[in-house]
Structure formats: C-alpha cells, structure tokens
Write a structure and sequence with these properties.
alpha/beta
C-alpha cells in the first residue's frame, strides 16, 4: 500500500496537457471536465460605465438570456465584461459548447488566439458562396500574404500619417484641433527619428502588424489601442534630430499632459481607417460583405450567432462589424437580413471606449445590462469554497489526463475514487464539494496562494487565468520533484508566494519564526512556509497536522508548551539598557495604545517581505546608534567625549549609512559600508519591536534578550563608532601628527618651539593656546615673520581645541582637563621630525591655522638673513672680546668732548644719549649666543637639516634691545666720524687739552673698529 509520504498522483505531462489557461485551447472533453460554475454578476449600464446590481447569475442564465431575448430589430448584442483573465472567453466557450444543435442557426466563432485579419475575415465570411464576398477574402489574403511584419508596420504608420494629415480643425473637437492637418500630429508620424521610435520592437504598431499577419500565442497579450506610453516622447534621442516644425508639436506634447491624451484619442480614432486602407478593406467593404452574408442566411431562414472571445483584438474591422451586426433585420415588414445574436467578451476599459451607437444598441438589445465577471471573493466561507471547487476540478484533470478525459466523454472520472491513500489524503488536505481532492493544497494554502497572485489593487479578486498560470501549474510542475524528494515547499515556492496582508492573510508571526530559527534545523525554511500557508499562520509554534507533515516529510518537533506561551508582564526597567523580564508582545494583555500596536504590526509585515516605513526605520536606527554613543568608553584611549549631536556630525546617526536595514525606506540611498546591518529575519523583527517599545517607554512589553542584545551591540559598535568618528573627524594618528606639526611651527613663530628643544618643552608648546605669548624681540623680526605669527595666533585656539579633544580627557563633555601623554608623545616626536608642511595632507581642522605658514620656506631664510645682517653691523663697532662698559664709556666721553668743542654733529648728541638710555639694560653678552646659533647654518647643510639649523638660530627669543644696540652703534659711528673730521678741519693744536682728549678718544674708537675689521678678515 502506498504511503502519503512523498506521494504524487499526477505527472507533469498530464498537467501541461489538461490545465489550459486559455479556454479555447482545451478539447471539449477537457474543457467541460475542468469547468467550474463561474461567479457572474448582472450589471446595469450607466452611460459608458456599468454598476453591479448584486444579482448573481449562472452560465445557464446567460445562455437562456442570450438565446431567448427578442428585440424589435432582430439583433442582440450582449457584452461579457471583465478584466484580463477573469473568465470572459471561458464563458463564451461554454456557451458555444452548450448551444443546442439546430439547422436554423449559423454559428461564427472568433477565437482570441486567432486574431489575424485574414482569419477574422475568413471566419466571418466562411461558407458563403458569393462573388463580392469572395473578392473581399481574396483581397485580404493578398494584402497579408505578400508582406512581412516590418513592411506592414511601415505601411500602417504611413497610412495613419496620411489619415491625420487629411484632418481639419473644423472636423475635430476640443484640443485635437491643435493637432489637425499636415502640420499637426501627422508631423510626429512623418519624422524619421520619431517614426523609428514608434516602430521599435515591442511598440504598438509592430505588435499589431505581427498579429495582423499571424495568430497570437495563447499567452501573448497585446494592447487593445494606443496609450500615452506609445507616443515617441524619448526627448534625449529625439529633439536633436527632428525638424523645427516637428519640435513645436513635440514640445506641445511634452509640456501638456492633456495634449498627450488628445493625441492618443486622435490616433485611436483614425487607426481603423489606416488598417482598412492597408488591407484593402476601406470604403465599408466589411460592412457590405457582412450585409451580404446576412442576406444570404436570411434567404436560408437562418439566424446568425456570433461568439467573440475578445472583441478588442479584432481591430481593423470593429466599427464595420458593429454596424453590420446591429443593423436591423427588418425592412418594410419583411426580413431582409438574417437575425444576429452576438456574445462578445470585452474588457471593462474597452467597454468605455465603444462608439456611442454601439452602447445605445447594446442597451436596446439587452434591456440595459451586461454580465460582469470581475469576481471579488470577500465572503470568507463562500470564497474559499469557490476557490476549492475551481481548483479541485483542475487538480482532478491533472491526475486523470487529457486522453482519459476525452475518452470518458461527458462522464468525468474522479481519480480520487480509486486512490489507495484517499482517506488519509482527504482527511489531511480536504476535498472540494464535488469530491475532488485538494492535495497538494488544503483550503488555507489554496486561499493564500490565490491571494498571493491576485492583482495588487484587488487582493480578493478571483482571476481564473492568473490562478491557473501563476499558482496551480507552477506548484504541480515545479513541486513534482521536490515533493518526492522531501524538499517541498522549496525555495522557488517560498520566493513566489508571499502572504497577502491586504487580503487578510497574516504572515507567520515573527515570534514563531524566531523560535524556528533558534532550533537551527535544516528544514526551518520549509517549516515556516508550511505553517504559514497550510496551517494558516498560527500565533504559537505548533506541529503540522500529521497527514500534512507526513506527506511533505517534515518531522514533528518536541515542543515545550511553556516556551510557546505568552510571557508574563514584569516591572519597569530603570534605564534603556537594563534588562527586564520578558513580557508579551500582543496589545491585548498589555493594553498597548492602538498607534503603538500598529507600529509593531508594521514591523511584523516587514519581516515577511514588506517594506519598513521611514518612521519605524528611523526609530530602530536612532536607538541602536545612540546606544553605541552612550556605551562608548571615552577613556580608552582618552578622548574628549562626544554627544549624540557630535556623533551625528561625524556621520554616526539614525541614517542608513550607519544602520542598514534590508527593505527599509531610504535604504537604497545608503552605500555598502554601513557598520550595522540588519537582514530581514524573524529575530531582527522581534528585536525591532522591542526597540520601538523601548523608545515608547513601554518597557514592560520588552523582551530581556532584546535588551541584552542591544547592550551587546552597543559595546561592539562603540569601537566602530570611535573608528568612524576618527575617520570622519580626521583624527587618525597621521592627521594628529600633521596637526601637531602645524602647532609646533606656529609656536616657533612665537619663539616657543624649535628643533633640538627637549621634548617636554615641545609638548608644552604644542598644546598651549598661546594666549600669553608675546615676542619681546619683535623689533628684530621681519615684517613677514610678524604678520605670519599674528595670523596664526588668531586661528590657533581652534587648532589646539581639536588636538586637546582628540588626545585628552574631559569632564563630562566639557573642557579637556588631562592630555593622554602616553599617546600624545609618540605622535609629537613624529611631528617634530620635520619642520615644514610640503607634501603634507592636512586635516580640514588644521588648515586655517596652517594657512599663515604657507610661505615658510621664504619666511625662515628671510628672518635668518635679517639677523645675520644685524649681527654683522653690530660687530663692526663692537667686536668679540670687547667690554660693553668700555665701549659705552668711551662713547660718553666722546659725546662730552664733542659738545665742549662745539664740533659739527653736536645737535645729534641728545638723540644718541636717548638711545643709550633705552639700551641701558641690554645684555651685550647675548650677541655671542646669537652669533653661535647663526653660525650653525653652514653651506654643507641641505634640506630638512638646513631648515632645522636655521630655525635654531632664528626662533629663540633674543635680547629685546638687539635692534636698539644696532641703532646706537650705527649712530655713534656716524657721529664720531663726522666729529673727527670737523676737528681736523679746524686745525686744533696739540696744546689744547680738549683737543688732545678728543684726539685720544677718536684714536681709541678707530682702533676698535679697525680691530673689528681685522677680525672679520
């Protein structure tokens, strides 16, 4: 006896041959075997629309109405409306199958899969022996057999252009008047660039041409008419190549939506004329031929029944055909045209576009109603039974197979009747009201599968073609092997079918999915989908119904009842990261506000494939990112603490580039470098719920494991935060070295740092704001040096604040109190290795303070040259080895003698004495230190070594009176030289005591200066 485990009762060949998505494809036996009573609504016509009356009818009601309705004109035009796949053509096919045989009736059947113009004409005119009708058939054959698709498409667009060029504003209405004539919309079709766009593969005209020449494939859908999407509005490729008049029309269409609508209406209005001209059917030939057909059948006493599976697809002859089939059969009390009954399937949208005359004649012939097949199964009980009945017939057909169905005739065999596992199968999976087993589905799985493939805007819509093509056939064919292998539902099924929340199908609860994930079983993904679809998403972890579990080879779990129950309420936590004992997530037990529960539901929807809106995603990102900030250890290594706003400025906040959430709003804008990444998992869903509850301070509902997880994440990502802050704030070691170098060079300008200075002094200078720095030797500095120093000092505070914040410890988030010397000293030593900024990439926070140092390579040599020159001039008058007291004493004596003798230059004596007073405290011995420092720069030094030597000479603070000493000596030398010359000119005698004294003083001064000259030599 076969077991239900891994059991299949169909094969793929039978599925393909017996389940057809197009009603016309199946044989009569298969069609009737799979036919399920359609849910048809009677709808009243209201202008160009219709309204459902709530009255449900059967196919038999439609058939009786269609065949029994009497009209004054002898014509019945009855539409069957509905969206694509709703079963319109199925109903038309069923009517054909059920038409009573009669030699008084001519049946013309236009299949939707045979919509080539030749096939349509030949079907309409079949069996009529008439010369005029025969000529129409011959002309259509000739026009469609002697061309190919591309040629026909070109002929169609040119005929359409000719038709539009012949229009006048007088014959058009409204906005269409702006598009009339040869300079209107016809220009768009005539322009080669735009014409090429309209003739590209897949566009309306080429697809129409293809279907004019050959019948469509069963699954090949073609637009019924032009839409705005078919206009050639590809501006980037069009504007440059089109002629100026065409650009005017093109800009009109691009700028005004209402003009685009008008253009589309105009194209559709004249399209049939272009089709008729292309196929030699113009001038009302189809209308005349159909009248001839009706005349012939009238003479035979027959009624014509026209069944059209899709009226929208017989373009080219629609208007003539409408006129022909609605033409009254009576003339002056006698029947001249055969009565016609037309049942035509038409989409709801195309019904609105029918000519006014057609709408009027439909109302007259049906009493003002249509039959609507757009079924919405809102009633749960009726809906699931309708789905089960529909699916059951097709599932049975797949088991029986086409050949056996055709051999059985009208008596459809039920494959389940003789199945050895019938009892177990029906007990586990159920059966339809007709007794057909639903395996491999059950009712919940069928409902959810149907809802999963329903149109997005109509989640409860029952669309037979969609159910067959996108649900039953894929499951039976793709699941054939996976069921036998024990891997059903496989990944393909899981990806294809998602619970439709809009239809009321809740996905499997995140808590249940999380519990399954915790088990780490190999069949976890299958278990989730089976519980969701076949067990209707239980709110607690349970085992599958035994028969279903056996059929799909899924072992039972050993479930701890306590584990799956809602957890108790607990105390309120005192901090966001303090664990609390678990509480239930549901709103019933905790009484959560409806708005908060709605947010939790949104997260649940995200976990099952939906999107996570901005509000919820922002909350999750905010809680996680802030936790890392609060958890940061700013003491290891020490750094000034950052607040949330500081972290945000550094690129760490509630954004997708910090916390990446799969499927969240704005996630596509984030890069791939987000440090925190959440995938769409059940565990993350439950975690997000806890974060939202934390944020809302509903802490009694928060699970302890989620709080512990948040704390753990905060610890882990605090390190990542520091790294990101460092990178974003440009506070890496290399950045800090560059900043410290700028600080040292700025301190050098103020005389507080230079190469070879002890590192302790460099350390102090590097972190000093410099607010108390005053250069006392400013008089001996160059103007460029002073200007650069002053400019740097205005920017130095911001530089030092950043260095202190990056390398120091603050009080709270306040000022830095302690610098981390262990980290700072190695960086400082690296900074002091070079005293220039060439080829150094500066962090942005150091650039302002570094800008005044841009001329460093000119600044230092210039200052060095000035000091060398200054020292040279001083040594001219005050050579090494001399005592400043002797020099000043001699100068004082010279001034007194010159004053007594009244020598020339005596007027400068007072000025020189002022200079002597000003340098009274000068340290003349400092000249020796300056001379020694300046001498260290020799011609043998190059590059950094030369610059370091120059800095050691120019940076240190020198005697404030250095410039004064220089000025005094130069003034004294000039004065004494002039005084001696004046004395000699007067011819003073040696007998004069004053003259002798002056001569002696002058001899001494000359000896001094000569000695200085000798030393220089």
């Amino acid at each position: 006896m076969p077991e239900l485990r891994d059991y299949v009762c169909w094969d793929i060949e039978r599925v393909v041959s017996s389940i057809q998505t197009e009603a016309v494809v199946a044989s009569s036996a298969v069609f009737l075997a799979t036919h399920t009573d359609l849910q048809i609504q009677r709808a009243e016509i209201d202008g160009r629309s219709f309204n459902n009356t709530g009255q449900m009818v059967s196919e038999r009601d439609v058939l009786r109405d269609f065949l029994g309705r009497k009209t004054a004109t002898g014509t019945v035009l009855m539409p069957v409306v509905g969206e694509s796949g709703s079963g319109k053509s199925h109903l038309v096919r069923w009517v054909r199958e059920k038409l009573p045989a009669s030699d008084k009736r001519k049946v013309i059947y236009l299949e939707k899969s045979k919509t080539s113009l030749r096939h349509v004409i030949e079907s309409l005119l079949e069996g009529v022996d008439d010369e005029e009708v025969a000529q129409v058939r011959a002309d259509v054959r000739a026009s469609t057999s002697s061309t190919d698709t591309s040629t026909l498409a070109l002929r169609l667009i040119n005929e359409l252009m000719i038709a539009l060029a012949g229009t006048t504003s007088a014959e058009l209405r409204g906005r269409q008047r702006q598009l009339a004539g040869p300079k209107g919309l016809a220009l768009i079709l005539q322009d080669p660039v735009l014409q090429d766009q309209m003739l590209e593969e897949g566009e309306f005209i080429p697809r129409f041409a293809e279907h004019m020449l050959s019948d469509r494939d069963s699954d090949d859908e073609r637009p019924a008419h032009f839409t705005v999407d078919h206009l050639p509005l590809n501006v980037t490729s069009a504007m440059e190549g089109v002629a100026a008049p065409t650009r005017v029309i093109l800009r009109l269409l691009l700028s005004k939506p209402e003009m685009r609508d008008a253009a589309v209406d105009l194209l559709n209005e004249y399209w049939e004329k272009s089709v008729q001209a292309t196929s030699s059917l113009g001038g009302g030939r189809v209308l005349d031929a159909m009248k001839k057909v009706r005349e012939i059948y009238a003479r035979q006493g027959k009624e014509i029944v026209l069944l059209v599976e899709d009226f929208a697809l017989i373009q080219g002859v629609q208007r003539d055909l409408l006129d022909a089939i609605t033409e009254t059969s009576q003339r002056e009390g006698r029947t001249v045209l055969a009565p016609m009954r037309t049942l035509m399937a038409i989409t709801s949208g195309y019904f609105h576009d029918l000519p006014e005359t057609a709408i009027t004649r439909i109302e007259a012939s049906t009493g003002g109603h249509v039959y609507n097949l757009d079924l919405v199964l809102n009633n749960e009980a009726d809906g699931i039974e309708a789905i089960a009945s529909f699916a059951g017939r097709y599932l049975n057909a797949a088991r029986v197979g086409r050949k056996e169905l055709e051999a059985a005739g009208k008596s459809v065999p039920n494959k389940c009747d003789h199945c050895l596992v019938r009892t177990a199968c029906h007990d586990a999976f159920g059966k339809s009201a007709e007794g057909y087993g639903l395996y491999p589905f059950n009712r919940p799985a069928l409902r959810r599968t149907v809802h999963a493939v329903a149109p997005a805007d109509r989640p409860h819509a029952f669309v037979p073609r969609t159910i067959l093509s996108r649900a039953l056939i894929p499951v039976l064919t793709e699941g054939y092997d996976s069921i036998q292998e024990g891997s059903f539902p496989d990944e393909e099924f899981r990806n294809r079918f998602k619970s439709n929340r809009d239809a009321g199908d809740a996905p499997l609860a995140g808590r249940v999915r999380e519990q399954i994930d915790d088990l780490h079983e190999a069949d976890g993904a299958r278990r989730k989908k089976l519980l969701e679809f076949w067990s209707d998403s239980p709110t607690e972890l349970v085992n599958l119904e035994p028969g279903i579990a056996a059929a799909f080879s899924l072992p039972d779990l050993s479930i701890d009842p306590g584990r799956t129950k809602a957890l108790p309420q607990t105390r309120r936590a005192t901090s966001p990261l303090e664990p609390v004992v678990d509480g239930p997530q549901g709103s019933g037990e905790l009484g959560l506000p409806r708005s908060l529960q709605k947010r939790l539901d949104v997260v649940e929807g995200w976990s099952s494939g939906g999107g996570l809106p901005t509000t919820e995603a922002s909350t999750v990102r905010s809680v996680v990112s802030r936790a890392a900030v609060y958890r940061q250890d700013w003491l290891n290594p020490p750094v000034k603490p950052l607040g949330v706003s500081d972290a945000g400025q550094a690129g760490w906040g509630n954004r997708a580039n910090t916390v990446s959430i799969e499927g969240a709003a704005a996630q596509a804008l984030a890069g791939d470098d987000s440090p925190v990444i959440f995938k769409r998992t059940a565990a993350n869903s439950e975690f997000f719920k806890s974060l939202i509850l934390l944020n809302a301070e509903a802490l009694t509902a928060v699970r302890s494991q989620d709080v512990v997880r948040l704390a753990s994440m905060a610890d882990r990502y605090a390190r990542v935060l520091r790294k990101r802050v460092t990178a974003q704030a440009q506070l890496s070691d290399d950045d800090l070295v560059s900043g410290l170098r700028v600080s040292l060079m700025g301190a050098a300008l103020a005389g507080h740092a230079h190469p070879h200075m002890p590192v302790e002094q460099l350390y102090t200078a590097a972190f000093d704001l410099g607010q108390s720095w005053q250069r006392s030797d400013g008089s001996s500095r160059t103007e460029m040096w002073q200007r650069s120093s002053n400019a740097h000092m205005t920017k130095r505070e911001a530089l030092i604040d950043t260095l202190r914040g990056a390398l120091g410890v603050g009080q709270g988030i306040g000022a830095v109190q302690v610098i981390d010397a262990a980290r700072a000293l190695p960086l400082l030593r690296r900074a002091a290795e070079r005293w220039e900024l060439d080829d150094v990439e500066l962090p942005r926070w150091a650039q302002d303070a570094a800008q005044p140092l841009a001329g460093w390579r000119m600044l230092v040599p210039a200052q060095h040259a000035q000091l060398v020159s200054l020292l040279h001039d001083i040594r001219q008058c005050f050579p090494r080895g001399e005592r400043s007291a002797d020099l000043l004493s001699q100068l004082d004596a010279s001034l007194r003698v010159a004053a007594e003798l009244g020598l020339e230059g005596g007027s400068h004596i007072s000025a020189i004495r002022v200079l002597m007073d000003e340098i009274e405290d000068a340290d003349w011995a400092s000249l020796t230190l300056l001379e020694r420092d300046l001498a260290k720069l020799t011609d043998g030094l190059e590059g950094p070594a030369a610059l370091a030597a120059a800095l050691q000479g120019v940076v240190p603070l020198r005697d404030p009176q250095l410039a004064g000493m220089h000025q005094l000596l130069r003034a004294a030398d000039a004065f004494l030289t002039d005084a001696l010359q004046a004395a000699e000119a007067r011819g003073q005698t040696a007998a004069s005591t004053a003259g002798q004294q002056m001569g002696a003083l002058m001899d001494t001064w000359q000896q001094v200066t000569q000695a200085a000259s000798g030393d220089r030599a």
